[in-house]
Design goal:
Layout: E1 21-24, E2 32-36, H1 41-53, E3 57-63, H2 67-78, E4 82-87, E5 93-98, E6 112-113, H3 118-128, E7 134-138, H4 149-158, E8 161-163, E9 172-175, E10 184-186, H5 192-202, E11 207-212, H6 220-224, E12 233-234, E13 238-243, E14 251-253, H7 258-270, E15 275-282, H8 289-296, E16 300-309, E17 312-320, E18 329-330, H9 332-335, H10 342-349, E19 355-358, H11 371-381, E20 385-389, E21 392-396, E22 408-410, H12 415-427, E23 432-435, H13 447-454
Parallel strand pairs: 2-15, 3-14, 6-7, 10-11, 18-19, 22-23
Antiparallel strand pairs: 1-23, 3-5, 4-5, 7-9, 8-9, 11-13, 12-13, 15-17, 16-17, 19-21, 20-21
EC number: 2.5.1.19
Subunit structure: Monomer.
Organism: Gordonibacter pamelaeae
Length: about 450
C-alpha cells in the first residue's frame, strides 16, 4: 500500500487513486514478531499540560509526536511554558518543559487553535479556569462542531466565565478567576476529558472538588497528578482533589498507546497465520477493555504485565489469528473503556458468527465525526448488516467475510476510521481505497510502515 503516486517496492502497482485517497493493498504475509506503538495519546497530552502548569522544569519522554499532541504543545507555549522537546530515534518526543507555576499563564497574543484535538480544547478549559486572563479557544471545522457545554457547565459553577454566553461549541473565550469555588459534580456521562477539566480547576479551588460519573472512565489524570505533587482520591466512579495547590515538576515516561495497539492486535486476529506481540504498551485497566471484548468473541489474545511507568502499568499484548469468532454483547458500563476501539471491534465482529451488540454507544456520534453512522455505512459496503437501535449498535457477523473489489471507504477525516477501513485491505484479499487516510497523523503517523514491517 502506498500514498500517491501509488508505487511500492513490496507490492505490485495499483491504479492511480483519485486525489485525497490512499490505496491499501493486502499484506503479502502474516503478521509476525514483536512491535511497539507510539506513546499513549491521552498520557502525552496530560504530561505536556501538567508540566506546563507546574513549578520548575519537568522531564518527559516517550511523548507521542502527532498532530493532536502538537496542538497541546503549541497551546502551552502560547501561554508561556518553555517547551524543549526533541524527536528521538524511535519517533517519540523527549526533553524538558518549564511551567508557569504559581505565577500562572500569560495572555496569548492570538487565539489558541487546538486543531482537531478535543482533548487539548477541553482539558485546556480546566487549566485556564483558575486564572483571570481572557483566552479564545478554537479549532478546525470538525472540532468546532463538537460539544463543549459538558465542560463549560461545571467550570461555570466553579466561577469561570465563557463568552459569548450560552455558546456550546468553539470558538469560545474563557475568562477564569483566581477565586474558584470547589464543587461536587455529578457528571451526566462518563468522560475522562470532563473529569480532568474539573479536577485541574479543582487543584486551585479552596476545598475539595469531587466528580462523580455514571460509569468508570480513563483514570490517567488521577494517576499522574500525584506525580506532580497533587494527591488525588480515586474510586470506581468518583475522583477528587483538595486545593489550592501548585503542581511541582516531575519526570514522566509515556508508555505505548493501547488504542493504537488495538489496530495491530485486531489485524493479527483477522489475518491468517499471524502471531504478534505488542510490547511496552500501557496496560491501564481503563484502556485495555478491547482485549476483554476480543476474548469474549473467542479471539486468541493475552496480556502480560512487565512493570510500571510512574503509576501507569505497562507490558505486552499478544494476539494470534483466530479463524472462529463469535458475537457477544458489550454492556453499557464497559463502553467508556473501549470508546475509541468500537469501530475496529465492529469490523472484527463483522467476521464473527452471530450478532454483536455494543450497548449505549451514543457518544460515538460526537467524536471527530459521527463514528456510529460511519461504522454502519462502512460495514454496509462490505455487505454486513449493521444498524443502530436507540444508542445501541448491532453487527450481524458473516464468518468467511470477503470484501468485494473496488471498495472506497470514507474516513471522514477521522483517524480511527481511517485505520479501521485500512484493515479491510490489509487483512483481506483485494485492495481498498481510503479517503483522507492522512488523518492517521493525529494518533499513529507510522501505522502503515509498522504493519508492513510485521508482514515481511
Amino acid at each position: 500500500m502506498s500514498h500517491e503516486p501509488v508505487a511500492s517496492a513490496a507490492f505490485a502497482p495499483s491504479p492511480q487513486p483519485e486525489a485525497g485517497r490512499t490505496v491499501v493493498e493486502p499484506l503479502p504475509a502474516p503478521l509476525r514478531g514483536a512491535a511497539t506503538v507510539p506513546g499513549d495519546k491521552s498520557i502525552s497530552h496530560r504530561a505536556v499540560l501538567f508540566a506546563a502548569m507546574a513549578e520548575g522544569t519537568s522531564r518527559v519522554s516517550g511523548v507521542l509526536d502527532s498532530e493532536d499532541v502538537r496542538s497541546s504543545i503549541k497551546a502551552v507555549s502560547q501561554l508561556g511554558a518553555r517547551v524543549s522537546l526533541e524527536r528521538q530515534p524511535d519517533g517519540s518526543l523527549a526533553g524538558g518543559i518549564t511551567g508557569w507555576g504559581a505565577s500562572g499563564p500569560r495572555k496569548p497574543d492570538a487565539p489558541i487553535d487546538c486543531g482537531n484535538s478535543g482533548t487539548t480544547a477541553r482539558l485546556l478549559m480546566g487549566v485556564l479556569a483558575p486564572w483571570d486572563v481572557p483566552v479564545e479557544i478554537t479549532g478546525d471545522e470538525s472540532l468546532q462542531r463538537r460539544p463543549m457545554r459538558r465542560i463549560t457547565a461545571p467550570l461555570m459553577k466553579m466561577g469561570a466565565r465563557f463568552e459569548p454566553g450560552g455558546r456550546e461549541t468553539l470558538p469560545i473565550t474563557e475568562v477564569g478567576t483566581r477565586d474558584l469555588r470547589a464543587i461536587t459534580y455529578d457528571a451526566p456521562m462518563a468522560s475522562a476529558q470532563l473529569k480532568t477539566a474539573v479536577l485541574l480547576a479543582g487543584v486551585y479551588a479552596r476545598g475539595t472538588t469531587t466528580l462523580n460519573e455514571p460509569a468508570p472512565s480513563r483514570n490517567h489524570t488521577e494517576l499522574m497528578l500525584p506525580e506532580f505533587g497533587v494527591p488525588t482520591t480515586a474510586a470506581d466512579r468518583t475522583a477528587s482533589v483538595t486545593g489550592p495547590r501548585v503542581l511541582q515538576a516531575a519526570e514522566v515516561r509515556v508508555p505505548g498507546d493501547p488504542s493504537s495497539a488495538a489496530f495491530l492486535v485486531c489485524a493479527a486476529v483477522l489475518k491468517p497465520g499471524s502471531s504478534l506481540q505488542v510490547e511496552n504498551v500501557s496496560l491501564n485497566t481503563a484502556r485495555i477493555g478491547f482485549t476483554r471484548t476480543l476474548e469474549r468473541m473467542g479471539a486468541d489474545v493475552s496480556v502480560r504485565h512487565a512493570g510500571a511507568a510512574g503509576k501507569e502499568p505497562y507490558g505486552m499484548i499478544a494476539a494470534c489469528h483466530t479463524p472462529s469468532l463469535h458475537g457477544c454483547e458489550v454492556p453499557a458500563e464497559k463502553i467508556a473503556g473501549i470508546v475509541d476501539e468500537v469501530p475496529v471491534l465492529a469490523l472484527v465482529a463483522a467476521h464473527a458468527r452471530g450478532v454483536t451488540v455494543f450497548r449505549e454507544v451514543g457518544e460515538l456520534r460526537v467524536k471527530e465525526t459521527d463514528r456510529l453512522a460511519a461504522v454502519v455505512e462502512g460495514l454496509g459496503q462490505l455487505g454486513v448488516e449493521a444498524y443502530i437501535d436507540g444508542n445501541d449498535l448491532y453487527v450481524e457477523g458473516q464468518p468467511g467475510l470477503r470484501a468485494p473489489a473496488g471498495l472506497v471507504f470514507d474516513s471522514h477525516g477521522d483517524h480511527r476510521l481511517a485505520m479501521t477501513w485500512a484493515l479491510v485491505g490489509l487483512t483481506g484479499g483485494v485492495p481498498v481505497e481510503v479517503k483522507n487516510f492522512d488523518s492517521v497523523k493525529i494518533s499513529y503517523p507510522r501505522f502503515l510502515d509498522d504493519i508492513e514491517r510485521l508482514a515481511r
